[in-house]
């Protein structure tokens, strides 16, 4: 049985992988109980499963777990601290960009990866990143407003 050693949300983890192709989303949800990472389409098209892998936003449903050996993975569970939402999370609440919430963790993680390295991302860049996600509830205007608000809050 293959073994995966990696860091998740700042904690070193060791996971025994089942034989065959196992995706990062399955390890996070099934082995580690981190259910904030949602799996919608299973093909990387909807973006709901997005996490930050070594500083980059990736769709975890298409990322083979074995490729994460020694990697650093950040999930939505790591953003809030002491019951206080991360500025990006709070921006989604304040902008009314949350309905059912299924796509929200992936959107937040993608924006986190972007705004951590590019806090001055233009509206066009924000829209380009949001367009990598499928939301069936809120419409994208509220999500774009949340992204703009998050950008301003991340600069502080």
Question: Which features would summarize this protein structure in a list?
Answer:
alpha+beta, DNA polymerase, domain 1, 2 domains, 5-stranded mixed β-sheet, globular, 2 iron, 2 sulfur cluster binding, oxidoreductase
Describe this structure in words.
The chain is globular and about 45 Å long. A hairpin with a 2-residue loop joins strand 1 and strand 2. It is 35% helix and 15% strand. Strands 2-1-5-3-4 form a 5-stranded mixed beta sheet, sandwiched between helices. Helix 2 crosses helix 5 and helix 4 (123-130) crosses helix 5 (140-155). The chain has 2 domains: 3-78, Roll (Ubiquitin-like (UB roll)); 81-155, DNA polymerase, domain 1 (Orthogonal Bundle), CATH 1.10.150. The mean pLDDT is 95. By secondary structure, the protein is of the alpha+beta class.
Q: Strands of the biggest beta sheet: in what spatial order? A: 2-1-5-3-4
SSE run = EEHEEEHHHH
N-to-C span: 46 Å
Count of helical segments?
A: 5
Class from secondary-structure proportions? alpha+beta
Radius of gyration: 15 Å
Mean pLDDT: 95
The quaternary organization reads as single chain
GO molecular function, one term: 2 iron, 2 sulfur cluster binding
Domain 2Fe-2S ferredoxin-type: 2-79
InterPro entries: 2Fe-2S-bd, 2Fe-2S-bd_dom_sf, 2Fe-2S_ferredoxin-like_sf, 2Fe-2S_ferredoxin-type, 2Fe2S_fd_BS, Beta-grasp_dom_sf, Diverse_Oxidoreductases
Protein name: Carbon monoxide dehydrogenase small chain
């Amino acid at each position: 049985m293959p073994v995966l050693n990696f860091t998740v949300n700042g904690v070193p983890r060791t996971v025994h992988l089942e034989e065959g192709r196992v995706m990062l989303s399955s390890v996070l949800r099934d082995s580690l109980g981190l259910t904030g990472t949602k799996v919608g389409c299973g093909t990387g098209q909807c973006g709901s499963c997005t996490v930050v892998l070594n500083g980059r936003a990736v769709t975890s449903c298409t990322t083979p777990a074995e490729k994460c050996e020694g990697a650093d993975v950040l999930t939505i569970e790591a953003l809030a601290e002491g019951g206080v939402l991360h500025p990006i999370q709070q921006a989604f609440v304040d902008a009314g960009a949350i309905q059912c919430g299924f796509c929200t963790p992936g959107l937040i993680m993608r924006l986190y990866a972007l705004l951590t390295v590019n806090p001055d991302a233009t509206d066009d860049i924000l829209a380009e990143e949001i367009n990598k996600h499928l939301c069936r509830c809120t419409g994208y205007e509220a999500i774009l407003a949340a992204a703009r608000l998050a950008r301003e809050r991340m600069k502080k």
